[in-house]
C-alpha cells in the first residue's frame, strides 16, 4: 500500500469515527433504558404496575434517546479534535447527559406526562456512567492501535531546530497521540540536513504546503521560528486549508496540563494564558482528608495480608519485620519511611560498593536482581507489598497516597532547582512515574513525570493514578 493510499484510509477511518461513536452512544443509551425498565419492574416502587411503566417509557423513550444523543452532539461530543486525549471528551459526554436529564424532567413536568420516576432515575444513573465507560474503552482501543502504528497522522514540524526537537521528543514519547513525525522544516538561513536529534530536514518553512504534499503529510506543527510575520503565517494557513492539511500551532511550552491553559483572543491575537502551578492545592484539607480516609480503609482491608507477610518474614530468618529508613518529605523535613524488610540485615552497608560497581546515578538508584534481596523479599517487591506499611506514614501525615516517591538525604542533596520542586508536596506511596513504567523509565523521564505531577496536581489525577497503580502492580511492570 502506498503512502497516499494509507493516508486516505486513515482519513476515511477517522472521518467515520464520529458516526461510530454516535451509534455506540445510542446503543448504550438503549441498553441503559432496557436495564432501567427491568430494574424499575423489579424494585416496583410507588405501586406502579409493570404495564404502566412500559407504556409510559414506550411513548417517551425514543424521544429521550434522540434528545440525549442530540445534547451530546450540540455540546461537541462528536468533534474529532476531542478524541483520544485530554478530558474534554468526557466532560462533554457528561454535560450532555446532565442536559438531557434536565430537559426530560422539565419536559415531562410541563407536559404533565406520567413518566415513571424510578425509570427516570435508573436510566440516567446507569446511562451516564455507561457512556463514559464506552468512551474510555474506545479511547483505549484507539491508543493501542496508534502505538502499533495504525490510525496515525503523518506530521511535519516547522521551526528552528531546537524547537522542532522539543516537539518531536514529546510526540515520539507519547505515541498514543497518533502523530508520526516524518521530518522537519526550518528557516531559509538554516542549511543543516538534520536536527540535533537526527530528524531529517525536508525543506524550508516558506514552502511548507509544497513539502507537505510531496511527503504525504496530514498535519504541520508550527513551532517557534516557523514564520517571519503574522501575514506570512496567515497566507500559509490559507494554502494548507485548500490542500486539506491540518495545522497545529505548538508554543514553546511543554508539560503543562490543559486545565492550566486558557486561550483568550484579544483583537484577533490568540493569547495563551497559563495559570500558576497547582502544587499549593495539594497541601489543602481535601487531599489530606482523602489520604486519611483512604489509608484507614486500606489498612483495614489489608490487615490479613499484613499479618501473613509479618509471619513469613519472621519464619524466613528471624530478623526484624519492618525496615525504617530516613527519607526527606515535604519542605525537606526528614521522616522514618516504613517498609517490610526485603533485604538482608546488612543491606545498607553494601550499597556504596554496589553503586561504584554498577556506575549508576545516585538519584533513583535501583539494581535489577539485587543480591541483597531475600527470598520472600522478591515476591514482596514484585507486587509492591513491601510498601504497604507506608499506609501508616500516610495516616500520620508524613506521606500521601499519591505523590513523588520519597528519597534519602544523599539523593536530595543532588537536586538542582527543578528537582527541588518535588519537595513542595508530600511524597507518595505511588506516583505518576510509577504507573508510567516504574523502574523501566530513564532518570530524565522519571524526573519529568514527577515535576509534571507537582506543577499540574488535581484530585482527579490522583484518583486516576490510584486506579492505574493496581494494573501496574498486578502486571509487575518495571518492579524489582
Please outline the major beta sheet.
5 strands, parallel
Strand order of the largest sheet: 3-2-1-4-5
SSE sequence, one letter per element:
HHHHEHEEHEHEEEHEEHHHEHEHH
Q: Total number of β-strand segments?
A: 11
Mean pLDDT: 82
Low-confidence stretches: 45-49
Task: Give me the Rg, rounded.
Answer: 27 Å
Q: What helical percentage do the residues reach? A: 40-55%
- Measure the end-to-end span: 43 Å
Q: Which oligomeric state applies?
A: single chain
Tally of DSSP helical segments: 14
Protein structure class: alpha/beta
Number of domains: 3
Strand content: 5-15%
Question: What keyword list fits this structure?
Answer:
alpha/beta, 480 residues, 11 strands, two-stranded antiparallel ribbon
Structure, briefly:
This protein is α/β, with parallel strands linked by helices.
How does this structure look, described?
The chain folds into three domains: 3-147, no CATH class; 153-254, Nitrogenase molybdenum iron protein domain (Rossmann fold); 281-475, no CATH class. Helix content is 52%, strand content 12%. It has 14 helices and eleven strands. It is flat. The model is unreliable at 45-49 (pLDDT under 50).
Break the fold down into its secondary structure elements and pairings:
Layout: H1 3-43, H2 50-74, H3 88-111, H4 117-147, E1 153-158, H5 161-173, E2 179-186, E3 201-204, H6 208-215, E4 219-222, H7 230-242, E5 246-249, E6 261-266, E7 269-274, H8 285-317, E8 322-328, E9 334-340, H9 347-358, H10 375-382, H11 390-396, E10 400-402, H12 409-412, E11 428-430, H13 443-455, H14 459-475
Parallel strand pairs: 1-2, 1-4, 2-3, 4-5, 10-11
Antiparallel strand pairs: 6-7, 8-9
